[in-house]
Amino acid sequence: MTRNPVTIYPETGIESAADLLLKNNMSCLPVISFQGDVVGIVTWKDILKFYLENK
After folding, report:
1. Which domains does the chain carry?
2. Residue from 11, 13, 7 nearest 36 by CA
3. DSSP character for 4?
4. Residue 2 pLDDT
5. Whether 13 contacts 36, CB under 8 Å
6. Beta bridge partners of 11
7. pTM (2 decimals)?
8. How far is CA 14 from CA 20, 29, 37, in A?
9. What is the DSSP letter of 23?
């Protein structure tokens, strides 16, 4: 298990999520609540799909 995982909150912007994925060479990011519970996951495909649908 990773000691300091890279995570995002539901309110994190799409640009910030994409930046974190690229800077950390990751394919997905766990989405956590402010209480620390995992509430979802964002993948690079989710971000790509968002950009293609909103261009």
Report:
1. 14-53 (3.10.580.10)
2. 7
3. S
4. 75
5. no
6. none
7. 0.87
8. 10, 12, 20
9. H
Q: What is the pLDDT along the chain (55 residues), one digit of tens a residue?
A: 778 999 999 999 999 999 999 999 999 999 999 999 999 999 999 999 999 999 8
Q: What is the pLDDT of residue 14?
A: 96
14: closest CA among 40, 34, 43? 43
Q: From residue 39, give the alpha-carbon distance in Å to each of 4, 16, 31, 54.
A: 18, 18, 6, 24
Which of 47, 44, 5, 10 lies closest to 27 in space, CA to CA? 44
Rounded Cα distance between 45 and 26, Å, is 12
